[in-house]
Write a structure and sequence with these properties.
The chain has 349 residues and is α/β, with parallel strands linked by helices. It is built from nine helices and 17 strands. 27% of the residues lie in helices and 28% in strands.
């Protein structure tokens, strides 16, 4: 097949490239330049330069042509604006979910997908075709599984995608990279939001939204405990970064109109159990399931809750968990599963 492979400079996508090359496919590598140096130059050196150095080295070693695609405008319009808007409205954004939906498999597809049979990445996930439908399934490595971030995709996107390393565990990827003598075999995995690299999210928010002093109020008593620099620096369930004595303090809720952050040092008391929440704007990868007793992830990671959905209109539902989760925050995505199959996601209201 003629396959375009998205490279990040990391070991996962590089091993995916090597595996496909060895299978005899006609390969072209792509690097998406999304780093917004004009917006973020004040924060120091651009991390994409190091990424691109490794991408060039891998492509040279494997004798694969490389095309660099500038996606800065699309990223600014489709991801950064969404992120700032969500934070400004007091919600917790999920930019990596939308990066996959709108950029890697959105704007990038619009530019080049017609020229290739498939587009491959180094995501930890598995795509399986059953009776003409494409299932998104958890990776073999449940710790690295990235279906949470891929839950906003649709059938058309999945039909075009390959995830060549979904059947491998991370230690197997590292061993293959060493066996292949890839230039980035020892490179550490990247962390954080894709377009920020090593930059702190709080620094990014400060640049866009600045500082607006407000009060920390104890949830139970209404007593002022201290001051903060803006409600947008805090998310529900957050413990660190408040600098207050008498804790540990947790963020319970936010009053965005009055710039108040409500906190509690009794966050895990029984009266604050969080088992029930509401979800809207569902994206079902295939179709809405008939059985509404589903597993759900509230964030990226291995842990799933048992849950029951009750729809009260076509695209909104009440979700009841089998246990309490103290980190439920508006704006986050709840991702639903039946066994190892990722069914889709919805946005927490």
């Amino acid at each position: 097949m003629k396959i375009g492979v998205l490279l990040s400079g990391g070991v996962d996508s590089s091993v995916a490239l090597k595996l496909l090359k060895d299978q005899g496919h006609d390969i072209t590598a792509f690097y998406l330049k999304i780093w917004l140096e004009d917006d973020l130059s004040f924060l120091g050196q651009c991390p994409w330069q190091e990424d691109l150095k490794y991408v060039h080295a891998v492509c040279k070693q494997l004798d694969v042509p490389l095309r660099i695609i500038n996606m800065q405008k699309e990223y600014r319009d489709r991801i950064v604006s969404y992120t700032i808007s969500e934070v400004k409205d007091g919600r917790t954004p999920s930019p990596d979910i939308f990066c996959n939906k709108r950029i890697k498999f959105g704007a990038f597809f619009e530019k080049i997908a017609d020229d290739f049979d498939k587009i491959a990445t180094g995501h930890y996930a598995i795509i399986e075709e059953v009776d003409g439908k494409f299932l998104l399934k958890k990776a073999k490595d449940k710790f690295k599984d990235q279906t949470y971030f891929l839950s906003h995709l649709n059938q058309e996107q999945l039909s075009k995608l390959l995830f060549p390393i979904g059947h491998l565990k991370k230690d197997e990827i590292r061993n293959l990279a060493k066996k292949f003598n890839l230039p980035n075999a020892q490179r550490k995995d990247s962390q954080g939001i894709c377009f920020l690299g090593k930059i702190k999210f709080s620094d990014f928010i400060k640049h866009h939204l600045g500082i607006k002093r407000g009060d920390f109020i104890e949830f139970e008593t209404g007593k002022k405990i201290g001051e903060h620099q803006g409600f947008w620096y805090y998310t529900i369930g957050q413990r660190k970064g408040m600098g207050l004595s008498g804790g540990p303090w947790y963020v319970v809720s936010k009053d965005t109109k009055n710039n108040v952050v409500y906190i509690s040092n009794k966050y895990y008391n029984q009266d604050k159990e969080r088992k029930l929440f509401y979800v809207a704007d569902f994206n079902w990868i295939d179709k809405k399931p008939k059985d509404l007793n589903l597993d759900v992830k509230i964030r990226h990671g291995q842990h799933c809750y048992k849950s029951q959905l009750e729809f009260y209109n076509n695209n909104e539902a009440k979700v009841t968990l089998n246990a309490s989760d103290q980190g439920l925050a508006p704006g986050q995505f709840a991702v639903f599963y039946k066994g190892d199959v990722c069914l889709g996601c919805g946005k927490i209201k």
